[in-house]
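User: Teach me something about this protein's shape.
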Amino acid sequence: MAAACGVAFNALHQGDALSLPDGPFDCVTILDVLYLMSDADKQRVLRECLRVLNPGGRLVVKELDTQPAWKVIPSRLQEMISVRLVNLTHGDRLHFQPVEALAEAAAAVGFESVEVLRVDQGYLHPHVVVRALRPS
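Assistant: First, the predicted structure itself:
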């Protein structure tokens, strides 16, 4: 048994972010994916997360912020190489956005207790986490 989002779990499910498997789940994590999607697809993904979570379930999204600028430049360069040159990362576009916009999008689809955490201290890239709860 392992722990995710501070609770024990017995199963881990992987799915397409635009069409998640039916839940309900206690936690949904999205790690470095949304920057590859259009704003419309990001909204669809967030609505899917809300749909499959238990009441009180947690959404955890790890993305790259657009600040500070000195961290953004190497991040964008790395992702441009990964997506466009070597096809290491699947996607057809890079759409980085400020973490505040992601937090606002989560709240707009119905998540509550949305919070932003910077997790980039000591790292070259501007890592951030957005946590939110599905209303009970």
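Now, about its shape. The first helix runs from residue 39 to 52. The chain has one domain: 27-133. If you'd like, I can walk through any region in more detail.
User: That's plenty for now, thanks!
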